[in-house]
Amino acid sequence: MKDLSELVYPTDLLYTASHEWSARVGDLVRVGITDFAQDQLGDVVYVELPAPGARFGAGEELGTVESVKAVSALYLPFAGEVVEVNGALEDAPQLVNESPYGDGWLVLARPEAPGWAEPLLSAEAYRATLESGGGPG
Question: Coil, strand or helix: which one is 129?
Answer without folding.
Answer: helix
